[in-house]
Model the fold of this input.
Amino acid sequence: MLRVHEWYNPANSRWELLDKVQKSFQISMVFLGIIPLLFACSQVNGLTVTETINQTSAIQPLSPTAPESFTQTTPPSQTPLSTNTIIATETLIPRTVIAFTGVIVPARCVQAEVDRQGNADYIYHEVRDILTGADITVGVFNATISDQVEYIGCQRSWELVGSPNNADALNNAGFDVMSVATNHIKDCGKQSCGNTAFFDTLMHFKRVGISPVGAGKNLSEALKPVVIEVHGIRFGFVSLGEVNERVFADAAKPGIAVLTTTNLMNAIERTKNLSDVVIVLPHSGPEDYPQVTPQQKYWARHAVAAGANLVVINHAHIVQGYQEIDSVPVFYSLGNFVFDQIWARDHQQGMILLVEFEGEQIVNFEFIPTLVDQDGTVHMAEGEEREEILKRVEKLSKELQQD
Done:
């Protein structure tokens, strides 16, 4: 069973875990230092104990700004080893932290403030250390970014468009992968623009070094995974969406990877051949509904059956619960991360999900509750509100376990 902690509180588990690792390391060093004395006291002739630590992979703090990753090895000796030399070698499995956010929509009132300030960096200021501290940070982008469209301004509209400097801000905030199999990925603003804003969005993410996943010039390209290697482990990401047929790709049409059973199975099988860990990011489910629907469960079960190691679903715009299916963690919605939907408090609330891997295995996960303003500024949820979000997610998750 996975362990759930509250990492970002310095008094809690991440720092406790670091302390335990450091103490264990220190104890092992003391033990190894005593061994020669024991041999000497026993008058064993010429025995020595040597240990060499790889200095290029020293212990890093398991903190929001520097996730833990270390390996202790003994490199080959430069001279022949004598028969009375003992080599003590220990290899610790590397740990990788992946951060996931909810839906990102830098449009309407958010874009109006971006225009006023001249950049979008202010949005992520309070959470930047958490996002940049992860080894891989993954978002869900449900808008377009282009300088060839007319922005809506701070008013109600279904057209969600933003400026290219939003991509720069997301890169500065630490994002590495962006799911774009979303229903607003072809929005054009006040006037029709065909596929211009769609291709601009993909281009600007690539320009700043963020890998978009789940969309392309045709269905085949949209189904391609993004694979990122960290500590020798290949993490493969695939994203498919089922909302808004207007944005669906086909053999000759650009758009998003369509979430069908066949596409899902094929995408996961392809990713398994290219990676060690398969992470599936479906865009599924109705908006504004806290309970997980049978449709969302259907996609989760099929993703797990096909070989997914982790499933993170988004689209609801509010937080939902999580469960394990055949020992695979499934998170159904992380809510809104950046959006101007202040008409309901639960739509301002979201969560950053931190998932910790030991090698290829998930060993911990963590929720960090957030709160977003109308201008897009993301805050850490505090006090009673933070506790209310966490308790609501736990309640929803217990309901899933009773199904």
